[in-house]
Amino acid sequence: MTKKITTYFVFLCLSGLISVAIGQNDTIKSLLLYESYPNARIDGATVYLKDASFNIIATTTTDTGMNVNCSFPGLSAGTYYVGVSYINKPWGYSNSTDAMMIQQHFVGIITLTGLPLIAADVWYQIGVINTDDAWAVMRRFTHSIPNFLPWRPDDWVVNIDYQVVITSGNEFLPIYTRCYGDVN
Asked: Which among 52, 66, 26, 19 has a CA at the least distance from the CA of 174?
């Protein structure tokens, strides 16, 4: 009899006819890292948490923690999105090699993917990487220009949402970022 009741209860849950509330004691813990230098933890960044409908439900600022530098406690099971909206650090890590690699991507010698591809688009032409981007990285590296664009909010690749699904317990999410222009 217990087996039949359990089976029926599971069926009702899976079919959506009944829902089970799980306590709000789960936590998403995160560590903000510089992608090409994984030991470089980034503090002073604003990290946000969105619900399944993409509404921001919490924000926090990263600290200098070695294993976790931000967390969102008191969550229920469900789908969440974590991302970075602002990093309060100076631009750096780019050099002439990055400019050369952006040029090589443009002519088809190499293929940039992931964060390096996003970081290569320094002129913010969404999806268009060309010699202008390579030239701008070289000019910025040599201090010929102070920034890439006056309307760019900062010098870091941010606003990428990472999906986290909490079933029960705590979830750990490393978040990676880069400076614009740093592709290697």
From this structure: 66
pTM of structure: 0.72
- Asked if the structure places residue 145 within a domain, the reply is no
For the stretch 149-166, pLDDT in tens is 765 556 888 767 888 888
Amino acid sitting at position 102: I
* Three-class HEC string of 41-83: ECCCEEEEEECCCCCEEEEEECCCCCCCCEEEEEECCEEEEEE
Domain holding 67, by residue range, is 2-89+159-177
Of 115, 116, 123, 120, the residue nearest 162 (C-alpha): 115
Of 177, 152, 171, 166, which Cα lies nearest the Cα of 44?
177
The upper half-sphere exposure of residue 89, i.e. CA atoms within 13 Å in the direction of its Cβ, equals: 25
* One-letter-per-residue 3-state SS of 112-150: CCHHHHHHHCCCCCCCCCCHHHHHHHHHHHCCCCCCCCC
Q: How many folded domains does the chain comprise?
A: 1
